[in-house]
Amino acid sequence: MIAIQVKINKQKVVIAAVEQGVVSCTLDRIIDSKRDQINFRLGGLNSINNEIYDWLLSSLAIGDKIEIQIIDTAVGQDIDKPVETRKVEELDDAILESKKKSYLLLKKELEDRKLI
Fold first, then answer.
1. How does pLDDT run along the chain (116 residues), one tens digit per residue?
2. How many distinct structural domains can be found in the chain?
3. Which of 31, 93, 97, 112 makes a 20 to 30 Å CA pair with 86?
4. Residue 111 falls within a domain, yes or no?
5. Are the beta carbons of 46 and 23 closer than 8 angstroms?
6. What single string gives the DSSP state of each residue in 39-107?
7. Whole-Å CA distances, 113 to 8, 24, 102, 105
8. 3-state secondary structure of 33
9. 53 is in which domain, residue-wise?
10. Does 43 fall in a domain?
């Protein structure tokens, strides 16, 4: 099985793979009035059982080095279990709840301005 191995500062952190689905790495920097941070995430989607996986979410600092290597490993061998697993439906419910909250706030604002 093809897997992704991540090392941070030459230390093996995680090996991730799915039999069918997606494994992805994301590096982002968030800057606003409250924070300035750099994060690395390794996550994925197992499309066989409709689960979303998080293997790694790590804050980084200046000078940190990330090594991403594509490796071949036996199914189930050396592959780390995700630190968090969620069903796709749970994510859908959270998105729907967020949309509902936004709708109610916008509705109130428009009513207050007598636009509806």
1. 999 999 999 999 999 999 999 999 999 999 999 999 999 999 999 999 989 999 999 999 999 999 999 999 876 678 999 999 998 776 667 777 888 889 999 999 999 999 99
2. 1
3. 31
4. no
5. no
6. EEEEEEEETTTTEEEEEEEEEE-TT--EEEEEEE--TTSSPPPPSEEEEHHHHHHHHHHHHHHHHHHHH
7. 52, 44, 17, 13
8. coil
9. 2-87
10. yes
